[in-house]
Structures are given as C-alpha cells and as structure tokens.
Automatic annotation (TrEMBL):
GO terms for cellular component: cytoplasm. It catalyses: tRNA(Arg) + L-arginine + ATP = L-arginyl-tRNA(Arg) + AMP + diphosphate. It comes from Sesamum alatum. Keywords: Acetylation, Aminoacyl-tRNA synthetase, ATP-binding, Ligase, Nucleotide-binding, Protein biosynthesis. This is arginine--tRNA ligase. GO terms for molecular function: arginine-tRNA ligase activity; ATP binding.
Length: 587
C-alpha cells in the first residue's frame, strides 16, 4: 500500500507553509490558512494568510506595502509542484489555487491501484474510547439509546478507518439502588429461590414497573429492597446471582437491536467501575478538590453554582462518582488519548462538570486542543410526527426491535411491488430489505446536525427520491450496473487504463472524490457525521451530472470514464461503511 500523503488540503498547506517561511522569515508559527474556494470559478483552494500577516508585519518596517503584495509574494514563493496548475490573486491578497487536472487524475488512479485505505486521515491519537449506546438495565431501551448507538458506531468507524484503536464501550446502567427493588420482587415471584424466570420476566419493563409499584406502596417491601441493595453490594451470592440474571435478560434484548444494526460493543457497565470509586475519590481528595456540603461530599466547579455531588448524603455513590472512576480508568488503565461520550444533550452539564473536575485534578490538560481529551457528543431528541417526543402507537414505550423490523418490512413490501420477488431469491430479497431499511433509519438520523431534534418519519426516510439512504443506495447500485453492463474487467482496467478529466463535469466529480480524506477528517475532528452525509449526497449529484453529460460505454473515453465510475463507487461504499450502511449492488 502506498503511504498516505495526507489530504489534498494538507498537501497544499505544506506548500504554503514553505512559501510563508520564505515570504515572512521573521514571523514564526504562522499556520497556513487554507480553505476550499467558495466559488469554484476562482479556483479549488484559497490561501487566506495575507490579511492576517499584514496586520502582524505592518509598522515593523516591512518591505510590503499592504496585504495584496504579501499575497503576491506568497504566490511567487510557492515551491514548484506538479499539484498546481496556476494561481491568481483576488481582493486584498487571497491566493486562489487551481489544481492540475493531470495531477488530480493521477491521484485518483493511485487510489484505484493502492486501495481507498490510502485515503485515510491520520489523527493525532492512537487509542480512543467511544462510550455509546449505554442503555439502563431493566428500563426501556429508548430511541435516545438508538440515536447514541447509531452516532457512536459511526464515530467509532471513522476513527477505526483512521487507524485509531477504538474501545467501543457500552456503559450500561447496571448498578444502583433500583436493583434492590428488582431483586426483592424477583424473590417474591420465585419464592423457592430457584430463579428460572426467563419467561416470567421476559418483559423486563413491565417487571420494572410492577416492582416499582410494590416499592412505592408497601413500606415493608421497601425496607427489604433497601436491605437487598446492601446485600448485593456486599457481594452476597444469592443477590449477585439474581442481579446477574436480570442483567442477562436485558442484555439479550439489546443484542437483538445491535445485531440488526450490525453494531459491535464491549460491555463495561457501571458496576465494573464501582470497586475503583473509593480510590479515585481519595485521589481527588488528596488534590483538595472534595468538600463537605449539606451532608454530601462534592466538588465545586469553576463557573458553576451547583457542585458535582460525588458521595450522597446517605454515603452512597452515584452517576457522577461512577463517571469519575470510569474516566480515571480509561486514562490510566486503558491509556486512551481521546474519550468520547455519546448521549443526549440533556447530559451536557453533567459531562462538563466531570471533565472540569478531571482538569482541576490534572488528569486532563486545561486546553481543549491538547490530548488526552474528553469530548461529549450531545444529540437532540427524536420527535414523532406530532412534534412531541417520539413514541410508537398506543403503548408508551418504543420497542426498538419492532421499529427496525417495520423499516425492513416496508422496504421488502416496496421491493415486492417492483417485482423483485420474482427476480431474486428469498435470501437476496431479505438481505436487500434489511440493508435498505436499517440503512434508512441510520441515515435519517445521521444526516442532521446531531445537536438538533429530528423527526422520525418512515415515509420520508424510505422515499427513493431526495436525500435518503434509499436514494443513495440505488444510486450506488446504478453505478455498479453501468460497470457490469460495459462487459469490461474493471480490475484489469485499473492496471492498464489511465484516468483523464477532460470534460468539465469529470473534473468537478474528480475534485469531489479527492476531497474525501479531508471530509472524513473534518467529520471526525468535529464529531459530526452529518458532514460525511452531505458529502455523500453531493457526490451522487456530481456523479449524476457527469453521467448525464458524458457518455461512458462506447465512447472514446470509455476506459477513463469507467475508472471514474469505479472510483465513485469505491468512495460511496466507503462512506456507506463509515455510516454503518450495508451497500446493495443491484436494484
Ligand atoms: N445510561 C445512561 C443513560 O441511559 C448513559 C450513559 C452514558 N455514559 C456515561 N459514561 N455516563 O442515560
């Protein structure tokens, strides 16, 4: 595999950096300011350093008379490079750069030969934790957990593509006082002590509700439940067993969701960190961070009125103490350099307080652009079509599995209506329905800026027109069929053919393909999957324009154009992969 030379943007930045060293040798630490041109008429990239430099050097007896001459000099001092076709100066010294078509074509060809892995970005970390999905045992796995599962998986995939080792952590809520009541209720239903209640407590949510009702209405039960917590935390065999059983039933329910979505997760629940809490609190205490307040032990945070409670009045630990222990563990035992938490925006405050405590303790650097780093990835609510919090049908809870199955069934129905049940095997039909149905649910979520609320609507997400996974999957299948119908061996063409970008629409498409590495990098750095979705949608539009205006099969440029089709298919598939969507090859 050829080594990655960095994204096009990075390569341009390197050239500009060299030029800056010659242009303004006395100004150290000037970062090259490169952006894609807003208007492609003027060029592909633009260097915006001149203005900022002018305000730095003027009055220092500089040879330059204004920002424009600085721009001129930056342009003149660019080292010769086969990347660049030409440059122009615009306005007060912007340097517009036009890439060489020949170089662009060669870069695409290299990717075709050496695989798209050579286009992976290179982030500055080796190991990351992505804490996502993380439902609470015995409570409903709600659409919020689904959003976290979908967004977290994509972020993990983008980092993995970038060769970061990712610890995919399911931080399940498997600890806390609610287990006393659940265990006690389990004993009540199975007095023999022989807990074989798989069937009897299959519906854990109903079980949770019933036990809560007992807890709230019967003081004697409540007392027993409170004692059960102590027995559980003391490690008594009978209680541990009951607890483990309840966790196992929940787990089976989550697994059904993960299996449909093709999501891998390693469980390290809240209970895992429980033994670490006392030591971690000692460490924080030694730094003088923990204080007494109204009977509780707390950490006061700069800029916050309310402190972070780390030991409750009754001496018990809570969500925050667990997260502090987990953060300590991830930094010190797992040696993660980037720790990413995916939850709804409602938990922003909690994570801000935990991260600030860690900074005050010196576990994390104070500056946000340094590593190790902790990031909270917050997302908005899922709304129903009525604009209220999403719920399915009459029941108040959403069975996520049913929701996913409905997406798949609707897709199967649409395929049957298009006559595919006669054309395809049952297995093909099933696989395609699953790919399109689950893909549609994921894409509908990921294409929005995650911080906004989004409306769950089957009709919209399953539409085969517009910005949906269905449209994009079909577009991909169409590209594959163009290549198939040409009757050419594409692997052979990769070896002998050359890519050319003669037609303006070919050049636009080629440029878009080349931007893939910097887009993944941007989506990854900002933890925003919607950037990748937008890129993918625009790619399919650029492809359509190319295909409408440039004859592929039977033209003089057939080989080059087939290679361009293949490059588009490869980048599209990589986008699908990063978004957790299974591609389809025929429609
Ligand atoms: N179980 C929590 C919930 O359902 C999410 C946990 C997120 N991760 C964490 N380390 N706090 O809201």
């Amino acid at each position: 595999m050829a080594p990655s030379a960095g994204s096009v943007k990075q390569q341009i930045a390197k050239l500009i950096e060299e030029s800056l060293r010659t242009t303004v040798p006395d100004e150290v630490d000037v970062e090259p300011a490169i952006a894609p041109c807003q208007n492609p008429k003027f060029g592909d990239y633009q260097c915006n350093n001149a203005m900022g430099l002018w305000s730095r050097v003027k009055g220092k007896g500089t040879q330059f008379k204004g920002p424009q001459p600085i721009g001129q000099a930056i342009m003149k001092n660019l080292p010769p490079s086969e990347m660049i076709e030409s440059c122009t100066i615009a306005g007060p010294g912007f340097v517009n750069i036009i890439l060489s078509k020949h170089w662009m074509a060669k870069s695409i060809q290299k990717m075709l030969v050496h695989s798209i892995e050579t286009w992976a970005p290179e982030p500055p970390v080796k190991r990351a934790v992505v804490d996502f999905s993380s439902p609470n045992i015995a409570k409903e796995m709600h659409v919020g957990n689904l959003r976290s599962t979908i967004i977290g998986d994509t972020l993990a995939r983008m980092l993995e593509f970038s060769k970061v080792e990712v610890l995919r952590r399911n931080h399940v809520g498997d600890w806390g006082t609610q287990f006393g009541m659940l265990i006690e209720y389990l004993f009540e239903k199975f007095p023999s002590g022989e807990v074989s209640g798989d069937q009897a407590i299959e519906d854990l949510q109903a079980f949770y509700k019933a036990s809560k009702q007992r807890f709230d209405s019967d003081p004697a039960f409540k007392e027993r439940a409170q004692r059960a917590v102590v027995s559980l935390q003391g490690g008594e065999e009978k209680y541990r067993k009951a607890w483990a059983q309840i966790c196992e039933i929940s787990r089976r329910e989550y697994e059904r969701v993960y299996q449909r979505l093709g999501v891998q997760l390693g469980e390290k629940g809240e209970s895992f960190y429980n033994p670490y809490i006392p030591r971690v609190l000692d460490l924080l205490n030694e730094k003088g961070l923990i204080e007494e307040s109204e009977g509780a032990r707390v950490i006061f945070i700069e800029g916050k009125k309310i402190p972070l409670i780390v030991v409750k009045k009754d001496g018990g630990y809570n969500y925050a103490s667990t997260d502090l222990a987990a953060l300590w563990y991830r930094l010190n035992e797992e040696k993660a350099e980037w720790i990413i938490y995916v939850t709804d925006v409602g938990q922003r405050e909690h994570f801000e307080m935990v991260f600030t405590s860690a900074k005050q303790a010196g576990w994390l650097p104070a500056e946000d652009n340094k590593y190790p780093k902790a990031s909270h990835v917050g997302f908005g609510l899922v709304l129903g079509e009525d604009g209220k919090r999403f719920r399915t049908r009459s029941t108040e809870t959403v069975k996520l599995v049913d929701l996913l199955d409905e997406a798949k069934n609707r897709c199967r129905e649409a395929l049957v209506q298009r006559g595919k049940s006669e054309e395809w095997t049952a297995e093909e039909l099933d696989k395609t329905a699953a790919a399109v149905g689950y893909g549609a649910v994921k894409y509908a979520d990921l294409k929005n800026n995650r911080t906004t609320n989004y409306t769950f609507n089957f009709d919209q997400m399953l539409n085969d027109k517009g910005n949906t996974a269905v449209y994009l999957l079909y577009a991909h299948a169409r590209i594959c069929s163009i290549i198939r119908r040409s009757g050419k061996d594409i692997e052979e063409l990769k070896k002998i053919g050359t890519v050319e970008l003669g037609h303006p629409d070919e050049r636009v498409l080629g440029f878009h393909l080349l931007q893939f590495p910097e887009i993944v990098e941007e989506a990854c750095t900002n933890l925003l999957p919607n950037i990748l979705c937008e890129y993918l949608y625009n790619l399919s539009e650029d492809f359509t324009r190319f295909y409408t205006n440039c004859q592929v099969v039977g033209s003089a440029e057939e080989t080059s154009r087939l290679l361009l089709c293949e490059a588009t298919a490869l980048v599209t598939r990589k986008c699908f992969y990063l978004l957790g969507i299974t591609p389809v090859y025929k429609i």
